[in-house]
Write a structure and sequence with these properties.
This protein is an alpha/beta fold. It has 21 helices and 14 strands. Helix 1 crosses helix 5 and helix 19 crosses helix 20. The longest helix is centred in the N-terminal third of the chain and has 22 residues. The protein starts with a strand and ends in an 8-residue tail after the last helix.
């Protein structure tokens, strides 16, 4: 990881930030003026840049403009005096990640820098991936199984049936299967059988001879011919008309077909990959799908998980789609605050990845500011939530059990709900876990709760375990055991 750059003409501020970040095991590099920092950018870049706004020579705003021109994804935190708040707003509008108002609390400063660091690392991981589209993203165990299956099938020409809800990325997986197969240099042809009228689908698949029907003025090659030696992907195969299913079965059985109106058999050397969101077994029982065709297609079945089964992938997918949307529109990519990412991860998105991508397009165009808060999301997603200022930032730590001011978690409580905001968020998270069928919810949430408390206490005590135990009101043996069980790092012996 690259160092964090600190740019300030005040040596004491640089010293304080250096020491605080060193305690967090974060490397730093300091500059006393913006000119030197701009010169250093010719040879290296930081992970995060923290700069004062008013310095002799080049100002922090000039440094910000230079950074955003050369490295638009680099988070910049501006330090400003309260009297410079207008300048801070201008900096924020110019692309600053956030600003620190002097005098600032050092713990809050470190927390803000860590947030910028997380954002920088997330964006780096997205941009470092292969530039070719399409790209499949996912860290969830369910997606890892899909990736393993693609790997196992990489040197095979076997027929694959991809199942899963609409919007889960079935065509992306089909393209990946083709890309990593021996046919990768040959054509990949995709056809959504549900999108073509029944009367035209036969000609679309197999082509037609001139004069085969009214309007057939020329001979036309069908998708099977276009995909010769390559891969033909038939999406929504469950909607294929019954009579065409017979013709498809014939091609899969003997590798030959006839154009519409043709009498000369055509040979097809094509790998067929199909996909459906429907239950084909049920359609076979209902007499809507040929059983022999089903068995011919169902050689290898690959089931794609819904977003409900891989909620941990929502943040990285959202960040990826925001970057892609920004590139398409020629604007700077927006970023989501941590509460927003948590809220997004708890959403029920029946349209799955496609719906999430469309939502990110909406955010890129419609959301105000560069950092997206929960209140900036489409109204249909946030209906019933209270975003009044009094519910977000005025309650002191510990009052009525609320979390610290300005975390944004209080905003997630339903309107009119007098319960603590973080409890409302916990209930929302628990409801989503239960709704998705997850098991042992109490144990999972209990571990997350204990881990969050202990990590927070260790940060406040700079990693001193015994001090953290005293602050939490638990025994030394207890915190030692919990740290081992939860796999918490960065602990010091007192």
């Amino acid at each position: 990881m690259k160092p964090i750059w600190l740019v300030d003409d005040d040596e004491s501020i640089r010293w304080v930030l250096e020491k605080a970040l060193a305690r967090e095991n974060l490397a730093t590099k300091s500059f006393s003026n913006a000119r030197d920092a701009i010169a250093a950018l010719e040879f290296e870049t930081p992970q995060v840049l923290v700069s004062d706004i008013r310095m002799p020579g080049n100002s922090g705003l000039e440094l910000l403009q230079t950074v955003k021109t050369r490295y638009p994804g680099l988070p910049v935190i501006i330090i400003t005096a309260y009297s410079d708040l207008d300048s801070a707003v201008a900096a924020f509008q110019g692309g600053a990640f956030e600003y620190l108002a002097k005098p600032f609390d050092i713990d809050k400063a470190v927390e803000l820098i860590r947030r910028a660091l997380d954002e920088s690392l997330r964006e780096t991981s997205v941009e470092a991936g292969p530039s070719e589209a399409p790209e499949i993203l996912g860290h969830a165990p369910a997606m890892q199984e899909v990736f393993r299956a693609i790997g196992r099938l990489s040197q095979s020409n076997v027929t694959v049936l991809i199942t899963g809800e609409s919007g889960t990325g079935k065509e992306l997986v089909a393209r990946a299967l083709h890309k990593h197969s021996p046919r990768a240099l040959q054509p990949f042809i995709a056809l959504n059988t549900a999108a073509i009228p029944k009367d035209l689908l036969e000609s679309e698949l197999f082509g037609h001879e001139r004069g085969a029907f009214t309007g057939a003025q020329t001979t036309r090659r069908g998708r099977f011919e276009q995909a010769e030696n390559g891969t033909l992907f038939l999406d929504e195969i469950g909607d294929m008309p019954f009579d065409l299913q017979t013709r498809l079965l014939r091609v899969l059985s003997d590798g030959h077909f006839y154009r519409v109106g043709g009498h000369q058999p055509m040979k097809a050397n094509v790998r067929v990959i199909t996909a459906t969101h429907q239950n084909l077994e049920q359609r076979v029982r209902d007499g809507l799908f040929r059983e022999d065709l089903f068995h011919r297609l169902n050689v290898i079945r690959l089931r794609l998980p819904s977003l409900r089964e891989r909620r941990e992938d929502i943040p990285i997918l959202a960040c990826h789609f925001l970057v892609q949307s920004a590139k398409q529109l020629g604007v700077e990519a927006k970023r989501m605050s941590e509460p927003t990412l948590q809220f997004m991860a708890g959403l029920d998105l029946p349209g799955n990845v496609r719906q999430l991508e469309n939502l990110c397009h909406w955010i890129t165009v419609m959301a105000p500011g560069q950092t997206v808060e929960v209140k900036d999301l489409p109204p249909e997603l946030t209906q019933g939530l209270d975003f009044s200022a009094s519910s977000v930032a005025l309650a002191p730590l510990g009052e009525a059990g609320r979390v610290a001011p300005n975390t944004g978690l209080e905003a997630l409580a339903p309107a009119g709900d007098t319960r603590p905001g973080w409890i409302g968020l916990l209930e929302l998270h628990a409801a989503n876990m239960l709704g998705s069928g997850q098991q042992e919810v109490m144990a999972v949430l209990g571990r997350q709760f204990e881990s969050a408390l202990i990590k927070t206490a260790l940060r406040h005590t700079h990693g001193r375990k015994n001090d953290a135990a005293v602050r939490l009101g638990i025994g030394r043996n207890t915190i030692t055991r919990k740290i081992a069980e939860l796999g918490i790092d960065g602990v010091k012996d007192d």
